[in-house]
Structures are given as C-alpha cells and as structure tokens.
C-alpha cells in the first residue's frame, strides 16, 4: 500500500468556511492548516511535545501540527492536578507548547502513514522510545501511575477507515460531540475522524442535551452519561430524531437508556468497544441489528477470541492493525500485555454470540464476581437495577465473603425504594444467586471525565 495522507480532508477535500467548530468558534480547513503549520514549525525536530487539551481550536491545531511535523503529541487533561501533570511530563520528556490560533505558517505535510505491518501493530518495533507514534495517550491501570500509550498513524488510519465503513460515515455528515480532547473517543474518533472523512465537526464545548439538540448534526458521539441526560430531557431527545446515527462508547450503555433513546429519538444507538491500547475493535453497524447491552462484531481486519471460557464467558483478546506500539519506556509492561502467541490481553470479560455479536461483562479485576461457585457479571446486575424506575445510577462490585468467596454489593443512586425491594427486584429479573446481598445508597457515583464509574473510589462496604 502506498503512503497516503492521514488527514485526507485537509489535503485534498473541498474546503468550507464552517469545516470545524469548537465551543462556538469556527474555522475552515485553510485556517486550521495555517494555525497547525505555525505549531509544526515551532515543534519541528522535537522528540515530542505536550498540549493542554482544552475543548478549543488551539488543541485541534496542536494535534494537527504534530502530525504535520511528524512529532508525537502528548495531550494533557486540562483539569489534571499538578502531581498527574508532573508525572506525565517527566515520564514523556515532553514540554508544554502554547498555541496561538491566530498565528499562521506554511509547513510541508509529513502526516503520512506507512503500510501497516504485523511487527509494528504488535508493539515490537525497535528504535527511539516513541517509535512511530503520532500520539502518546496516558491511561491509568489498576495499579501504578498512568502509562503512556503509543498510537501510530497506521493504527489511527486503519481504525478510522474501519469505523467509516461500519457507520457509513462520509463527508456528507455533520459530526456532533462534546467529549474531552485527551482521549481516544473525543480526539481520535471525534476530531481526527472528521478530518479524515471530511465530515463537518461541531464540538459543543460541554456535552449538554441542549447543545446536542441545537447542533443539527447527522452523526452524534456520546458516553452513557451524556445519553442518560439526553434521554431525561424529552425536548432535546426528540430534536435528535433528524440525525442519522447516535453512537455510544467508553462505557457500557445501560439497557434502559437504550430503550428510552429508541422511544424518544426513533434511533437505536450504535455501541462500540475499544481501549486506548487497541482503539476501537468491535462495533455494531449502521446497517445492522443493534441490541441493548451488545457492542456488535469485530471490525474489518480485527480478530477476537475468548480465552479460557467458562459458560462462554472469559477474557477478550484481540489482534489487528489498530493496536498500540507499546507503553512508552516500559518494555516489560508491553510484553506482559500480550499472550505468548501474540494476542493482546484486554482484561475485559466478554462473551460472543453465534452470529459474532460481542457482549462485555466488565473488567476482570472488578466486574467478574465469583460468588458461591457462580461467575456473575457486574454489568448484568447493574442493568437489572437500572430497570427499576426509582434507580438513577448503579454500580456493582464483589466484596470478600467468608462463605461465598465474594458477595454482590450494589451502590445505587435512588429515591423512594428500600434495599430489600431492590434485592427482590433483581432476583425476580435475573436469578436468585445474582441478587445483591448488600445495597448502599449514595448521592452520586464517582466518575471520570468520560463519565465512567470509578469503582475503586466507592466507599468500603
């Protein structure tokens, strides 16, 4: 395969004055390339550079500028504390580069991709610590400080092309979202995806139901928290009925939210699955069936398997051209993330139905509960709890139990219902052995910037 530009729309598509809008500010491709060129000139020759990834045209210009110069970009969460920022800057060796969007410069585009190869996709390349990275995205695991994930141009291009095919995403679309620009969802899919397909991009700044409703898009991205809020605002939800596709990701979409969106907007949302290390590997299709609690089938070029399944459930492992190039400066951690025969260990527990549809049970470390000899997925119990009209939020974990091994503990945000009523409700919906033995009521669940519940921050039982 010959080298081709990564950001196809910027290097050949017809320009338009409203190509990119972020938090109320709009620019053309020409404006964006000029601002990105100024960034590229400033960072040319650096090993990497960091940018405070606010929801702004400056962040978009910084990332595009890094791609033009062939210099890896390290996005920093704008709300990160000093300790986290210090760790990322020290670990990456990057310096923060300020961006002035009004500054303009020409810069020859080097944002090309090489033909994908298995060695690069598996993170086994030699050379500089950055290898061929375009982005270094920091992600936290269950232990230790955040690790830098090396994402190549080849991986980004392969993933965006597969998603464009799966979602029928074209230059005729207007993509709307309000997601953070320091994660895969908001930055890779939500910005670079638009600049590759040529679709208009409207970033709403904050992902409020009112902002989504006013944007008039054809393609919408959101996390479950966003879609839950949209579904609770009937006027905003009905305003999305003219869209072509609603996409949910970054965490499981509760089945009640799926059903509410279907009733209010007329759309069944597309769910997809991925990780920072793998980008998006599994998705429902725009032209296919969408089922509550299911994330669809493997994208073209992606292979998946369930390791050591019990009753069809086990760890999901993947291979394909979208995988990361390794953890920055951590060869041991990179090697440990693969099996001996070259499959990436996602750490997520899943099942695959006969037609290839994947269902994610949860994280092996927190969401697979072994109680009384049963293997119980926390997500199944959470969906059952969310089916109760009094429950607004739910998170389920396993806690040590002297007889059962683990007992099911539910943390809920609810009004006008007792713990016993919720326990009985789950037992009637699922099985008796899947009922919570302890129910704790909270004012809200702890969540990260993507709206994903942070179970490690839940109060002890």
Automatic annotation (TrEMBL):
An individual GO BP term: fatty acid metabolic process
Domain of life (superkingdom): Bacteria
Keywords, in A-Z order: Ligase
Keyword presence, Ligase: yes
GO molecular function: medium-chain fatty acid-CoA ligase activity
AMP-binding enzyme C-terminal domain location: 380-452
Domain AMP-dependent synthetase/ligase, chain residue ranges per copy: 18-328
Pfam families assigned: AMP-binding, AMP-binding_C
PANTHER family in UniProt: ACYL-COA SYNTHETASE, ACYL-COA SYNTHETASE FAMILY MEMBER 3
UniProt record similarity statement: Belongs to the ATP-dependent AMP-binding enzyme family.
Protein name: Fatty acid CoA ligase FadD36
Organism name: Actinacidiphila cocklensis
């Amino acid at each position: 395969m010959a080298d081709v530009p990564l950001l196809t729309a910027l290097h050949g598509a017809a320009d338009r004055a409203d190509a990119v809008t972020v938090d109320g500010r709009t620019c053309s491709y020409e404006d964006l390339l000029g601002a990105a060129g100024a960034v590229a000139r400033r960072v040319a020759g650096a090993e990497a550079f960091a940018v405070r990834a606010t929801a702004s045209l400056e962040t978009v210009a910084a990332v595009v500028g890094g791609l033009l110069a062939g210099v890896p970009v390290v996005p920093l969460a704008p709300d990160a504390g000093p300790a986290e920022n210090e760790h990322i800057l020290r670990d990456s060796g990057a310096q923060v580069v300020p961006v002035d969007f009004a500054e303009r410069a020409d810069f020859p585009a080097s944002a090309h991709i090489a033909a994908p190869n298995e060695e690069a996709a598996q993170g086994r390349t030699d050379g500089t610590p950055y290898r061929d990275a375009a982005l270094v995205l920091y992600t936290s695991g269950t232990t230790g400080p955040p690790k830098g994930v090396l994402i190549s141009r080849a991986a980004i291009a392969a993933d965006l092309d597969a998603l464009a095919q799966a979602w029928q995403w074209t230059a005729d679309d207007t993509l709307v979202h309000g997601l953070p620009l320091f994660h895969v969802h908001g930055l890779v899919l939500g910005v670079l995806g638009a600049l590759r397909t040529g679709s208009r991009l409207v970033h709403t700044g904050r992902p409020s139901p009112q902002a989504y409703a006013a944007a008039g898009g054809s393609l919408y991205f959101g996390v479950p928290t966003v879609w839950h809020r949209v579904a609770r605002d009937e006027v905003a939800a009905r305003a999305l009925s003219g869209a072509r596709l609603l996409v949910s990701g970054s965490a499981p979409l509760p089945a009640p939210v799926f059903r509410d969106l279907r009733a209010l907007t007329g759309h069944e949302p597309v769910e997809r699955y991925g990780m920072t290390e793998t980008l998006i590997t599994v998705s429902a299709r725009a032209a296919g069936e969408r089922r509550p609690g299911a994330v669809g089938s493997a994208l073209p070029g992606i292979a998946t398997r369930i390791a050591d399944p019990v009753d069809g459930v086990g760890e999901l492992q993947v291979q394909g051209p979208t995988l990361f190039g390794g953890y920055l400066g951590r060869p041991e951690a990179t090697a440990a993330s693969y099996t001996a025969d070259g499959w990436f260990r996602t750490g997520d527990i899943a099942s695959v139905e006969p037609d290839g549809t994947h269902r994610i049970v949860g994280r092996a470390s927190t969401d697979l509960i072994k109680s009384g000899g049963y293997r119980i997925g926390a997500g199944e119990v959470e969906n059952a709890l969310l089916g109760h009209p009094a429950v607004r939020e739910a998170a389920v974990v396993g806690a040590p139990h002297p007889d059962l091994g683990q007992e099911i503990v539910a943390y809920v945000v609810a009004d006008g219902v007792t713990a016993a009523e919720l326990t009985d409700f789950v037992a009637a919906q699922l099985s008796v052995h899947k009922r919570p033995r302890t129910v704790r009521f909270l004012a809200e669940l702890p969540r990260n910037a993507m709206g994903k519940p942070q179970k490690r921050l839940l109060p002890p039982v």
